[in-house]
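seq/struct pair 1
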Amino acid sequence: MPPLITTYTGKHFDITRPLPEAICIEDMAHALSLICRGNGHVRSFYSVGQHCLQCAREAKARGLSRRLVLAALLHDGTECYMSDVPRPLKEVMPIYRKTEAGLVAVIYRKFLGTPLTAAETKILKTIDDAFLWYDLTYLLDDQPDMPQPQVCCPPDYTVRPFAEVEREYLAFYKHCREV
């Protein structure tokens, strides 16, 4: 049996051979709005979709290019197909990291035209890491081993209905594509 998942929109997605035509923004918005950050080990539900929106708003507030704002929205798009795996676990799963890297390249190629450059990846990683600090602090009552990062858009950890997050994700995507 091939390694296929059936997506929200009814597509059959092969994680070992991700095809751009099988990747769908509606699937991403829906699934990411339902997947909890931190593998669910948080005090209250906060979706990967909310996190992606937060990163995209931060990229926009920093005056980054439309390409990087959209990349920030899409940066965890692999989790739509591969779920949210915490960083410490990813570190001991080389095949997961390899598969994820290949899939994110396909996602960026589909929606941005090309994968991110090393410099673009570094910028997005800085934003993602900043919000990881806030997630650890406010969602887990953990004490990250680094100073509080400065952000333009402090995170909002309000528990929101998934359908609202899904609609906002799609609207933000549409806005990025139209600008």
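seq/struct pair 2
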Amino acid sequence: MAEKAVSKKKAPQRRLTKTEQRKQALALEVIERLRNEYPGAKCTLDYDDAWKLLVSVRLAAQCTDARVNVVVEDLYAKYPDIESLAEADVDDIEAIVHPCGLGKSKARDISACMKMIRDEYDGKVPDDFDALLKLPGVGRKSANLIMGDVFGKPAIVTDTHCIRLVNRIGLVDGIKEPKKVEMELWKLIPPDEGSDFCHRLVYHGRDICTARTTPYCEKCCIADICAKNGV
């Protein structure tokens, strides 16, 4: 006699607390308003290939995107592809990228990263988050940026603008560690909105909700729903 199929019940979903419900509603409203305010927001690093974005985001650590965009022009003029950059002397890479700061460590990571892509991934940047994290110099922020911008997959890039603004707005409560902020935002932000949302936070953080001056709340599109924590 054939065994009777046993139906598997799905585990009941945890009910959201009132605080979580409020934050989700706030997140959706913030997403909508920032979309209207910055409809064309995109990554501010210039690139036309995945490996170039990897290089640029490594150089952008403690450096402005504007400076990185200038420096990489000389780098790619001399080393136009993964193979040539993987073969380049680390000191030669450092000589070009030193205006971005931390030149020695950045050059070392770029060289090792290009070698690994060439040797282990057949010259192609992997489209898997965990594989990206194995690349030298690639952390969660960089991996999320690649996943979202290059491969169009769900991503949340917790850079300094993102961390500062989501705390000020009240989407997270006094959390500064990038990974913890990312995990909290995954609970609130629809997966297909994460990448664009984070890009818009960069624009908003530079233009309105600034770090080094008093935020321009009078010009802010979310002023009436923002908690203004720390402002």
